[in-house]
């Protein structure tokens, strides 16, 4: 007598057991691929002003990217996150913090174009203060 439990195989676990409303329904139509638009045509679907751009907040997202940061950048981000929690009663995760930061940067780019913080920092090689906020405030004060 074997001490092993007798378990069903994959074919028994995944076999069709009868009619189900889920199986009777017609399959959803395949999404049509939209033709590629010229950059000028795509721009019209973007927000016109920087105020309209916001981070997406807490919701299910359908796209993902991986970004590698230095230890100092991660520490600065965690410090900002904890400061938001401790001083401003805002509990945010890293993802939301990054989405909001990207939204702010892109809104500034939409509004100021060549004079935006993004363009200036990229022209300067993208290297700056690890915390980022001192340089950002100085650049914004310089612009105004």
UniProtKB/TrEMBL annotation:
Residues covered by region (Disordered): 1-64
Domain of life: Bacteria
Name under which the protein is recorded: Cobyrinic acid a,c-diamide synthase
Species of provenance: Amycolatopsis minnesotensis
């Amino acid at each position: 007598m074997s001490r092993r439990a007798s378990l069903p195989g994959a074919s028994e676990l995944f076999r069709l057991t009868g009619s189900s409303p889920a199986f009777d329904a017609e399959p959803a139509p395949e999404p049509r691929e939209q033709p590629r638009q010229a950059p000028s045509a795509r721009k019209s679907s973007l927000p016109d002003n920087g105020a309209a751009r916001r981070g997406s907040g807490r919701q299910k997202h359908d796209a993902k990217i991986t970004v590698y940061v230095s230890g100092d950048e991660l520490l600065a981000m965690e410090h900002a996150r904890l400061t938001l929690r401790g001083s401003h009663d805002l509990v945010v995760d890293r993802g939301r913090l990054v989405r909001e930061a990207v939204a702010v940067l892109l809104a500034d780019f939409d509004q100021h174009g060549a004079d935006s913080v993004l363009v200036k920092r990229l022209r300067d090689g993208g290297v700056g203060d690890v915390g980022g906020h001192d340089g950002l405030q100085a650049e914004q004060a310089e612009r105004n």
